[in-house]
Structures are given as C-alpha cells and as structure tokens.
C-alpha cells in the first residue's frame, strides 16, 4: 500500500492525505534531520509554493503575498 494512504487510514482521516501534503510533511522532517551545514543549503533551495502579485498592463506588478 502507498505509504501516504496507509498513514491517513491509520490516523482515521477519512478524506485522505493528499500527496502534496504528505510530501511537504516528509520534506520538513528531512530538513530537521540534516546536519547544520546541509540544512542551510536545503533551506536556501526552498521557495514559496504560491506567489500573489498584482498585474498592471499585462506585466507583473506589486508583490502582495506568498504562501509556503
């Protein structure tokens, strides 16, 4: 059985854990386990998943918000 589906069933989650959510949890756990020098490099590679910008005249304008 796929690990993330197995995890969601054991926790009693009826709707299931989506793969993206599971991968975010796994990535966070992995970053916490890294040695300090490797952790810094891994955190630098992280980037926002969603960036919201206001568009003006067909070009990206003012930055509004980002979500991780």
From TrEMBL:
GO MF entries: proton-transporting ATP synthase activity, rotational mechanism
Transmembrane in keyword set: yes
Signal sequence coordinates: none
Domain of life: Eukaryota
GO cellular component terms, semicolon-separated: mitochondrial inner membrane; proton-transporting ATP synthase complex
Pfam assignment, any one: ATP-synt_Eps
Sequence intervals crossing the membrane: 12-30
Keywords from the UniProt entry: Membrane, Transmembrane, Transmembrane helix
Similarity annotation: Belongs to the eukaryotic ATPase epsilon family.
Name under which the protein is recorded: Uncharacterized protein
Species per Swiss-Prot/TrEMBL record: Pyrocoelia pectoralis
